[in-house]
Amino acid sequence: MRLLAVLAGAAAxxxxxxxxxxxxxxxxxxxxxxxxxKIDEDLGAREGDFLRQQITERVSAALADQRATLSSGAPxxxxxxxxxxxxxRPTIEQLAQLPGLDAMRSVSIGGAELRAVLRRNGAxxxxxxxxxxxxxLQDVAFAPSTWSEAQRSIRxxxxxxxxxxxxxxx
Length: 170
Hints:
Blueprint lengths: L1 H18 L3 E4 L3 E2 L1 H11 L1 H21 L3 E2 L5 E11 L5 H6 L13 E10 L2 E11 L14 H21 L2
């Protein structure tokens, strides 16, 4: 009798993983108008491309962990926007514009604010919002890269998006 209960439980668990494997479309990452202006006037287009790539890779990996199948034209679409992002170290464009900055010694509070909208057949089924920035410069002293804190924010956001997908993949 116990063996049947264990087998039934295992079958239910396997079915739950298959049920969460619904196809999903990941729309291209967009920028808020304010962040687009910041990219154009301060950070540089290269940085926008880098952040888009980071978000796409992290969210795709988190969705794969939930057994999602990325597919264009799926009924469930995830639209992601970068609301804002700040680097921990100067970008190449900032170094060119402000020669007094030092690529290694200039640090600032960094992070990112991100938003995702999950839509099924055009209707909003869930929204995900994530914001994370350093609390102070003491947190930044050992930031190894330009986008250290923004990348941490992106990793956390990707998990939230994948969890929202799993909750709505039916």
